[in-house]
Amino acid sequence: MEPHERCWARLPLEGAFNVRELGGYPTYNGGFTQYHRFLRSDCLCRLTAWDVRFLRDYGVRAVIDLRDEDEAANTPNVSLGRDVLTTNIPLMEFNASEIREIERRFAAGEFAMEDIYRHILEHYEGMRAVMRFMAEAPNGCILFHCAAGKDRTGILSMLLLGLAGVDKWDIVANYAQTWPNLMRDEVFYADWMDAARSAYRVAMTSPPELIEYAYDLLEDTHGGIESYLLECGVPDEDVAAVRQRMLLD
Q1: Which run of H or E residues covers position 61?
Q2: What tens digit of pLDDT does each residue of 131-159 get?
Q3: Is the pTM of this model over 0.90?
Q4: What is the DSSP letter of 185?
Q5: Could you give the CA distance from residue 112 to residue 115 in angstroms, rounded to a whole number?
Q6: Domain boundaries defined on the chain
Q7: Given this structure, which CATH class describes domain 3-8+18-244?
Q8: Which residues contact 211 (CB under 8 A, 6 or more apart)?
Q9: Which DSSP string do the residues of 18-50 spell out, in sequence order?
Q10: What are the tens digits of pLDDT across the range 20-64?
């Protein structure tokens, strides 16, 4: 069996460190989520030629960049090829003055990561666009990512896994894997070890309680993940198509 034909938990890439599967999780009905359907990832801006070949061979046929336009322009992705469908659908947007205010409040202890997660979940337009793209994407694997593959990517992973019938604690475990994955990245590790960037450490950990908060928020305020997506304005047929993509062999 060739490496790209295997079902990896984390893909062994050279220039991205948090590329991993949503396949292999048990569901409530006794099934499991399929491999080679959805990959969650950190930024693709440092992919090597070997990485590109691996992802193409693995079956990636569509890429969703969840970063805002400035992020995507400042650290552009390495292309996987013209035949791989790509799109940029921001799930979090702040203007420059808002970012400065958030940084000030974060440093002062007046702003928490939970506030960021609520902001992501309130981006209904982005959620509708992401689900429509996934429902209509060509056959093959869809890779979605933000910068580190933690917050925006973590929220979307929670929605996809929950929609497929994966239980809360497997979703939490999937989320918590981000930080140890990123510690392989020498750049991330150097930033992490810089004691002067204590706020960075808070922002870049992936404590289980944070995604548990987001999951419980949807349960308490929307009645669950599918109800939340419908309230975002995602059509029933898109919800069904994405769920089928996760599950059908």
Answers
A1: strand 60-65
A2: 999 999 999 999 999 999 999 999 999 99
A3: yes
A4: -
A5: 6
A6: 3-8+18-244
A7: alpha beta
A8: 154, 155, 158, 171, 172, 175, 176
A9: --EES-S-B-TTS-BPPTTSEEEES--TT--HH
A10: 999 999 999 999 999 999 999 999 999 999 999 999 999 999 999
